[in-house]
Amino acid sequence: MQKTIKQSSKLEDVCYDIRGPALEEAKNLEAQGHKILKLNIGNPALFGFSAPNKVLNNVSENLRLAQGYSDSKGLLSAREAILQEYKNLGVSNIEPNDIYLGNGVSELITMAMQALLNNEDEVLVPMPDYPIWTASVRLSGGNPVHYICDEESDWYPSITDIESKINSRTRAIVVINPNNPTGSVYSKRILLDLVSLARKYNLTLFADEIYSQIVYDEAEYFPLASLSEDVFTVSFNGLSKSFRLAGFRSGWMIVSGPKNLAKSYIEGLEILTNMRLCANVPGQYAVQTALSNHQSIKELTLPGGRLKNQRDITWKLLNQIPGVSCVKPMGAIYLFPKLDPMMFRIEDDTKLILDILQKQKILLVEGSAFNIKDKQHFRIVFLPDEKLLSQAITQIKTVLDCYEQR
After folding, report:
1. What DSSP state is assigned to residue 372?
2. Residue range 184-209: mean pLDDT, rounded
3. What span, in angstroms and rounded, lies between the C-alpha atoms of 383 and 394?
4. Can you give the pLDDT at residue 295?
5. What is the pLDDT of residue 19?
6. What is the per-residue pLDDT for 345?
7. Which of these, 17, 46, 172, 233, could form a disulfide with 204 (CB 3.0-4.6 Å)?
8. What is d(CA 360, CA 75) in angstroms, rounded to the nearest whole number?
């Protein structure tokens, strides 16, 4: 008799519920003929956001050149364009060899954790977080330790809480700025405080900055590597969001700071980079042209821009629902509203998301998917047009009414 084939025990505490049970139910509903409004994932192309034609044309023109493997770190032309971009942003002491192209940032995060962590090592990860960070730490044998981001203080990291959780096993601090799922954009002061902690305790900094160019109002993005010249820093960015090229899976990772102290770690990155041969080559051909047209996102985020208008209307309508509050996001493409526990009885936020999906055919993500402790939050993407968003908020309210404690 054949034995049952079981998954690895390494996956016991790994979840990515952004594409979890609710998405599976959404697929079932679609198979039955229902149309689902997918507000669960930041997929700009789904809602009519297109990349600049110049970028698409350049990739098309270079397809013949993209049939073979590239250098394991990526095309030199792409890495040189990234290098110039970061020098313009004030990041010094980097060269093309410090830049790694990847199949999206997600692949590079996994590689960065695998190269660093031994079993039981700890990494400080924000709470709420983008869940691939927690998952990658666990899959690499480490333990994610979640630090508080304070909703009452614009979702800024609590420096006191971070320091209280540092011990002899702590290896690194993850910083997601602009933040997913909260939309918080960190001030220069907060970033300097994080750098000071890393310096004091000899920790590596991991800077997830995929939404770097999507900021609103008076918010200003500061690359962490520009403030951490004496602290080893690994920065992540790519074309998925700011350049509306999610399907190209074109991301990059940069090592900066005192690289001489991280020779062994960098050798580990080299091993993992070589093992996967190279990143998607056609997507790499988009990098140089995209970075030379980086201002294209400003048309969407400045006053009158589509993204800013959609953020404003969604934030306003959510806050008009009795018992719902939401910190205004200053960056990214999400809102992370809170449900007042005195008004709504939410014992299982996954059930709430499934109720909204089944009753209104709207797909959201429960707050607990982002490793936050309470069950009172959910994440909503504001990529659809204003009319669709307004209708969606009204429909969400009708479901919340059923949870209201009278």
Report:
1. -
2. 98
3. 17
4. 64
5. 64
6. 84
7. 172
8. 46
Contacts for 218-224: CB closer than 8 Å, 24+ residues apart: 219/178, 219/185, 219/330, 219/331, 220/185, 220/188, 221/177, 221/178, 221/185, 221/331, 222/186, 222/188, 222/191, 223/86, 223/89, 223/90, 223/91, 224/175, 224/177, 224/191, 224/194, 224/195
Token digits for 207?
């800077």
Task: Identify the bridge partners of residue 331 per DSSP, sorted by sequence position.
Answer: 215
Cis preceding-peptide flag for 341 (omega within 30 of 0): no
Residue 218: CB partners within 8 Å, gap ≥ 6?
Answer: none
Q: Is the whole-model pTM more than 0.85? A: yes
Tokens 């806050």 appear where? 319
Label the pairing between strands 156-157 and 170-176: unpaired
CA angle 371, 279, 256 (to 5 degrees): 65
Cis peptide before 128 (omega within 30 of 0): yes
Domains present along the chain, CATH in parentheses? 9-49+299-403 (3.90.1150.10), 53-294 (3.40.640.10)
Beta bridge partners of 126: 147
| Residue type (1 letter), 390 | S
The burial of 2, by beta-carbon neighbours within 10 Å (0-12 exposed, 13-18 middle, 19 or more buried), is given as exposed
d(C-alpha 79, C-alpha 99), whole Å: 6
Residues whose CB falls within 8 Å of the CB of residue 27, separated by 6 or more in sequence, listed in order: none
- At 65, which amino acid appears? L
The b-or-e profile of 62-93 (16+ CB within 10 A means b, else e) is beeebeeebebbbbeebbebbbebbeeeebee
Q: Distance (Å, rounded) from C-alpha 202 to C-alpha 257?
A: 12
231 residue type, one letter: V
Amino acid present at 247: G
Average the pLDDT over 359-386 and give the result.
94
Structure-token pair, residue 365: 């993500």
Helix (H/G/I), strand (E/B), else coil: 80: helix
Q: Read off the pLDDT of residues 10-45 as tens digits, 9 standing for 90 and up.
A: 777 777 666 678 888 999 999 999 999 999 989 998
What is d(CA 334, CA 179) in angstroms, rounded to the nearest whole number?
A: 9
In angstroms, the CA 146 to CA 154 distance is: 18
Tokens 């059930």 correspond to 351
Percentage helix, strand, coil, to 5, in the chain? 45, 15, 40
* Residue 194: closest CA among 168, 221, 156: 156
